[in-house]
C-alpha cells in the first residue's frame, strides 16, 4: 500500500517479519528507539511524505513489553498518520476479554490496521489475518502478493481457528488462569533474585546479560525437565542475553512452582544469583 512518496515509521524492536515487510516495500524507512514517543514525533514532524504509516508490535516478542498505544494514536492524529499494530502476541488472551493490546491499554479502536496470527493463543495451528477499513482489505485482496500467490488455508485449520475464536469470545476461564500463572511466575522469580523483563505479560524474559550464562541457565533448566530457550546477540542486543519463558494456561500451580524452584536452583549453581 506504500509508494516511494510515502514513509513508514518502525519501532526498533519490531518483530523480524515486520522488518522484512518494511524492507520489501518501496516507502521511505525510519526507525525510532523502542517505545520512544519523543523521537517518533521528531521523525513525523520532519517528514514530508504523502502517507505516513506508524508500525509497531502490540507486545514485543523478545521483551514482553507493551506498545504505548494511546501515545501512538495521539501522534498519528496529530501528524495525520495511520497506525498499524501487529497483535500476534496479544490476540485472544491479552485484555479483559482477549481483544489484545488495544483493550489492555484501554483504547479500543486506536489502530487503523491490525495484523495478527492464528498460530498462537487463537490456535488453528497456522495462518493469520489483517483487519482494517473495508477499502484497505479490498485493496489487499487484489494487490497483496503473499495473499494472491499462496494457497488458501486448509479447511481443518479454518475450522479450528473459528472454534478458537468462539472459545475466546465466550469464555474467560483460560485467560484468568493465564493471568494467575503469569503473576505467580513473575513474583516467584523476582523473589528468587532474578530479573524478569516485560509488562505483566506471559512472555517472561529472564535477563542474564552474558550469552554463556544464558546458555548455562537454559541447559540447567532442561536437565531438570523444563524447556526454556536462551537468546543472545544477534537475536537480541549485545549484553541483553536472556532466557525466554512463555507461560501457558495449561500450566498448573505445581508446574509454576516447579519452574520457579528450578530457576532459583540453577541460577545459584551457575552464579547468576549469589547464595
TrEMBL record:
Keyword terms: Acyltransferase, Ligase, Pyridoxal phosphate, Transferase
Molecular function, one GO term: acyltransferase activity
Xref: InterPro entries: Aminotrans_II_pyridoxalP_BS (IPR001917), Aminotransferase_I/II_large (IPR004839), AON_synthase_class-II (IPR050087), PyrdxlP-dep_Trfase (IPR015424), PyrdxlP-dep_Trfase_major (IPR015421), PyrdxlP-dep_Trfase_small (IPR015422)
Gene Ontology, cellular component aspect: mitochondrion
Aminotransferase class I/classII large domain residues: 2-263
Family matches, as Gene3D superfamilies: Aspartate Aminotransferase, domain 1, Type I PLP-dependent aspartate aminotransferase-like (Major domain)
Pfam families in the record: Aminotran_1_2 (PF00155)
Obligatory cofactor(s): pyridoxal 5'-phosphate
Family membership noted in the UniProt record: Belongs to the class-II pyridoxal-phosphate-dependent aminotransferase family.
PANTHER family for the chain: 2-AMINO-3-KETOBUTYRATE COENZYME A LIGASE, MITOCHONDRIAL, CLASS II AMINOTRANSFERASE/8-AMINO-7-OXONONANOATE SYNTHASE
Record-given protein name: 2-amino-3-ketobutyrate coenzyme a ligase
Natural source organism: Papilio xuthus
Amino acid at each position: 500500500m506504500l509508494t516511494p512518496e510515502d514513509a513508514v515509521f518502525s519501532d526498533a524492536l519490531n518483530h523480524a517479519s515486520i522488518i522484512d515487510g518494511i524492507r520489501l516495500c518501496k516507502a521511505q524507512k525510519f526507525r525510532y528507539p523502542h517505545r520512544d514517543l519523543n523521537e517518533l514525533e521528531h521523525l513525523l514532524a520532519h517528514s514530508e511524505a504523502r502517507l505516513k504509516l506508524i508500525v509497531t508490535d502490540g507486545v514485543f516478542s523478545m521483551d514482553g513489553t507493551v506498545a504505548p498505544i494511546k501515545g501512538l494514536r495521539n501522534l498519528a492524529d496529530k501528524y495525520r498518520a495511520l497506525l498499524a499494530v501487529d497483535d500476534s502476541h496479544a490476540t485472544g488472551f491479552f485484555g479483559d476479554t482477549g481483544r489484545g493490546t488495544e483493550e489492555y491499554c484501554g483504547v479500543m479502536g486506536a489502530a487503523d490496521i491490525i495484523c495478527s496470527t492464528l498460530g498462537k493463543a487463537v490456535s488453528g495451528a497456522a495462518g493469520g489475518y489483517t483487519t482494517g477499513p473495508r477499502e484497505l482489505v479490498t485493496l489487499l485482496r487484489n494487490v497483496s502478493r503473499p495473499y494472491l500467490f499462496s494457497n488458501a488455508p486448509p479447511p481443518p485449520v479454518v475450522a479450528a481457528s473459528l472454534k478458537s475464536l468462539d472459545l475466546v469470545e465466550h469464555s474467560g476461564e483460560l485467560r484468568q488462569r493465564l493471568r494467575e500463572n503469569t503473576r505467580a511466575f513473575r513474583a516467584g522469580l523476582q523473589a528468587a533474585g532474578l530479573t524478569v523483563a516485560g509488562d505483566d505479560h506471559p512472555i517472561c524474559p529472564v535477563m542474564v546479560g552474558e550469552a554463556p550464562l544464558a546458555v548455562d541457565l537454559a541447559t540447567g533448566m532442561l536437565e531438570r525437565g523444563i524447556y526454556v530457550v536462551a537468546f543472545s546477540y544477534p537475536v537480541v542486543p549485545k549484553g541483553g542475553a536472556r532466557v525466554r519463558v512463555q507461560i501457558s494456561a495449561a500450566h498448573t500451580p505445581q508446574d509454576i512452582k516447579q519452574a520457579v524452584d528450578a530457576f532459583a536452583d540453577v541460577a545459584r549453581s551457575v552464579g547468576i544469583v549469589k547464595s
